[in-house]
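debug: dumping io for the single-chain case to check the tokenizer round-trip. Nothing else runs in this session.
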Amino acid sequence: MADENKKPRYRNTRYLSLIIAIVAIVVAIIIWLWPISPPPPSDFSILIDPMLGAIQAGGVIQTTVSVMGISGYDHTVSLSATGQPSGVVTAFVPPFGEAKPSYTSSVTINVDKNVPAGDYTLVIKGTGADGKEHSCSYTLTVKPSVTPTPTLIITPTPTPKPPEINIIDSMESTMGWYTYKDDEGSSINRKSILGRTGNGIEITYDLKEWGWVTLNKRIDPSILSEIEGIRFFYKGTGKPNTIEFKLMYNDGDEYNGIDTTFGFLINAATVKDDWTQVEVPYDMLECWWSDKSCDDNPRLYLNKVRKIEFAFSNRPEDGDVYGSGRVIIDDVQGI
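debug: decoded output
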């Protein structure tokens, strides 16, 4: 009797082992046949911001193009523009020479006074060294140039020719502008708001005693060789603190090198109710940093400049009052 009771248990165990083996084989086949998604291909993308702008015939407008690498894309990418009508010229500044993703490029669009009014679509194309191409569109609205109303002049006098304006940055967008702060707890934020002409960049900050914050951007040194200095416009509220304007080299690698700095400062100047113009001729810039660079050669070499910077600092001995403030900067131009 005992032997007969054992046999069914043995058969049940054998069947269970067989079922487990079959299930394991089926699972292995499913895993083997299941498709494995390949990683995304190496590529790049291109973005323009802002995507549209309006300007009178005879004017200049700017936008910013950003190139971003995808999945380790490491080829040079060059930029070009098509679709612009006769009389519209585009210039990309920077990159300098060959540039690999990711980077940003300021696009300056010069519109001749004879360009007909209307909407035009400019196609900005990025071409990789491996042949890949991507593009984005910018809508340019050209408005008729304003014809001045004639006035009666009793004694005719020659009208002086207005000075040519070299646009360094119209401050229409925050693209390409980066912020930094001290390690003492000061804070800074930046955004694009309505400015003096078009948009401007608003900087809000809270300075600790002896604290500082900065806003800077890369610049093409070839622009500087055509002018004699820098002009910018600003207005601000809050606690009065110092404005520092700087031109800087890259003496080492792009992020870790010692930046030789030439600067000009205005103490307790951040509070201005109305738009205020500041002109800084090159001969007003002094070598500030580093001690070795300033001792060895304190002269400013424009072809070495790679960065433009605005700083807001607290200097109690010069009448500054630490605390929060707000400054809007617009229309950075050459003089």
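debug: round-trip ok. Helices lie at 2-33, 221-224, 291-296.
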